[in-house]
Amino acid sequence: MADVIEVGAARGDAPPPAASAARRRSSAGRGGRLTPYLFLAPYLVLFTVFGALPILLGVWLSLHQWDFQLPNRPFVGLDNYKELFSSDSAVYGDWWQSVRATAIFTVLSVPLLVVVPLGLAVLLNRSFPGRTFFRAVYFAPYVLGVAVIGLLWRFLLDANLGLVNRLLGVVGLPADTPWVTDVPWAWISLVGVTVWWTSGFNAVIYLAGLQDIPQELYEAAKVDGASAWERFRHVTLPGLRPVLLFVMTTTILASANVFGQSFLITQGAPGTETRSVVWFIVEEGLRDNDAGRAAAMSIVFALMLAVVSLANFRLFRYRED
Amino acid sequence: MIPNEMSRRRLLGLGIGLGAAATLTLAGCGGGDDSSGPAAGNGGKDYTGPKVDLKLWNGFTGGDGEIFKTLVSQFNSEHQNIAVSVATYQWEDYYNKLPGAASSGNGPDIAVMHMDQLATFAARGVITELDDVATTLELTEADFAPTVWKGGIYNNKRYGIPLDMHPLGFYYNKSVMEKAGLDPNKPPTTRDDFTAALTELKKSGVQGFWISPFQFTGGMSFYSLVYQFGGSLFDAEVNKATFNSDQAVEACTWMVDMIKQGHSPSNVGQDAEYLALKSGKNAFTFNGIWQINDLKKSPDVQWGVAPLPQIGSTPAAWANSHNFTIVKQRANNANKVSASKVFINWLSQHSLDWAKGGQVPARKSVRDSADFKALTEVGALAPELEYAAFPPATPGLGEVLTTFYNSFNEAALGKKSPKQALDDGVSKANKQLEDNRKKYGS
């Protein structure tokens, strides 16, 4: 996951230094040429040690059958990659099932995690009594660890003993919905819990963005006779565009990295239908001690996410132009 | 809630990437040391050398951890020249941590390990052979139960000295049985009794045998029944998975029929079968021996525990066992190794106190003692040792067993017919076994 963020960051950062270096060359000459690189050096060192080297090591591992505890770790070329794409290998079925699970979760959760917090933020940005209290309430679940929310919701959602089905029964709705053991209910549970859990975080970011939009724009719009919806559509949304890009990107990546929720709440059930990619990679790498295979999966997965992130950046940049 | 077993709740947070990277880096400096031989000291009879400090790692995070520490301090006070210090981790973290720690020289001298982990850790060169301990101490199969004693052997060499065994037991709620007009002191022991009891329970409005689709505990119940019906999970050499045999399909069908016949609700969640037993909604469940201590904490629950009823043609029960192992060290220290052996032997002889922690001692002399027989509940499960179905000693079996449990999950949740689920599972398991053979070269 860090890999992709680094890739994104590097992309964002790359043009400015080059441009400023070019400018310096024409004006200040030789003396200033090193300066930008010296300023970049501390980050570059960290990036090299914790970003680039692990990525390179990962690529190297992915070309081996690698168990660090075994004396022979044979070079296998692209076998670890081929396995992921050949239907008769031991991992093919599990791998694509986990990709599918992750895709379903991401597609279902991201729109909600982008829209619901935006609504919350707009509401919480108004002034009303108890505003601070409600801001805290909506942010509160986010401070809980995944283990806490996972166990909590697993018991609440239990088909036979859980409070959720009990309450549904009281109001006359079906009381035997298998929230955590069958699809599509399991997806509804996972997405619902995640929205409940992390909406507060995105809302806080939106809130900061909203407070950056100059009040005068709203006043001017009002003077021009814009309705509340028109003010939202033509003032708030454009003002939030950079924040939206940030929220979209981080939310997609966070959703694609889902692990704890399905690990604890559905435990992959039914069968392994809700097992996510990150979970599967962890199993291969750390339980089955096949770091090479896990590295190959990580790299393929990172490439998939890089493509999605690129598309995301393009989409927002296009709109800006 | 259930502290044992490695494949469970592998709660690895964000630190995992860093941890993996760290162990990989460590491996660079730690690999390839194969020199530490097993022969050191006199195999555990006594230790007369200079004072040594021993590090011991275990995963006893529950009440059993305290009992273990008490035993260790007793050992320390009886042995002036050996000082054992204990570190306890969650089993999940523990098994991930141990190889890296051992190869970087920061590992323990003695490690407690589940029987089904021994082969993997032996094949990966983390632990060392212990045949000389067995020979010198004249420990033989006769001192233990054959099932548990053989489980410590991998590639004809012994790697583990068994401390205990923890089988699946048959728990029953006495008040629920009474309400249905059953004798609470006579839990069913045969298939006919069992189904008759379920019919009575159903009449009193209780679904009497909740089938969990998860490894804990439905999967382990199915595991037991496969062996009860005369099947097995793998062939003798563990080259092929056989859990789609007619016997296994029959066992699986019997369990799924429990749901179809209304003796169990469908979609039982994790731990729901056990919580329902405690709250009087369920009458019978198969669960690990470790739940005895948990149930003792709930005085308002009227419960009992017995060996699993014989549903199939022969008695059998899933079981696992804690074993002592000696960790290979980068720098071979003969004194430490021989002191470790003294400790292992001493603790194995003093495992009665360990039984109070809720485990059946592996050592026969302890099991036969009057003191052990006084431990009613744990003692009730001791007979299962004779026919316990331990997982075979094959490296990398963890993922294959997960495949087995996942197939059962699909059948129990009605996603596939028992036959279909097990056939699919076996074809995947066979590929995994083949992969493992290539990797571990056996």
UniProtKB/TrEMBL annotation, chain A:
Region listing for Disordered, in residue ranges: 7-30
Membrane-spanning residues: 34-61, 103-124, 136-156, 185-208, 243-265, 294-316
Coiled coil: none
Superkingdom of the organism of origin: Bacteria
GO (cellular component) term, any one: plasma membrane
Subcellular location: Cell membrane
Gene3D superfamilies for the chain: MetI-like
BP terms from Gene Ontology: transmembrane transport
Keywords for the protein's UniProt record, in alphabetical order: Cell membrane, Membrane, Transmembrane, Transmembrane helix, Transport
Claim: Cytoplasm is one of the keywords in the record: no
Membrane topology (UniProt): Multi-pass membrane protein
Domain ABC transmembrane type-1: 99-312
Keyword presence, Membrane: yes
Family per record: Belongs to the binding-protein-dependent transport system permease family.
Name of the protein in question: Sugar ABC transporter permease
Automatic annotation (TrEMBL), chain B:
A Pfam family matched in the record: SBP_bac_8
Keywords associated with the record: Signal, Transport
Alphabetized SUPFAM superfamilies for the sequence: Periplasmic binding protein-like II (SSF53850)
GO MF annotations, alphabetized: maltose binding
Basic and acidic residues bias (residue ranges): 421-442
An example Gene Ontology biological process: maltodextrin transmembrane transport
Any one GO CC term of the record: ATP-binding cassette (ABC) transporter complex, substrate-binding subunit-containing
Signal sequence region: 1-27
Chain intervals for the UniProt region annotation (Disordered): 416-442
Family, as annotated: Belongs to the bacterial solute-binding protein 1 family.
PANTHER family the record matches: MALTOSE-BINDING PERIPLASMIC PROTEIN, MALTOSE_MALTODEXTRIN-BINDING PERIPLASMIC PROTEIN
Protein name: ABC transporter substrate-binding protein
Protein species of origin: Micromonospora costi
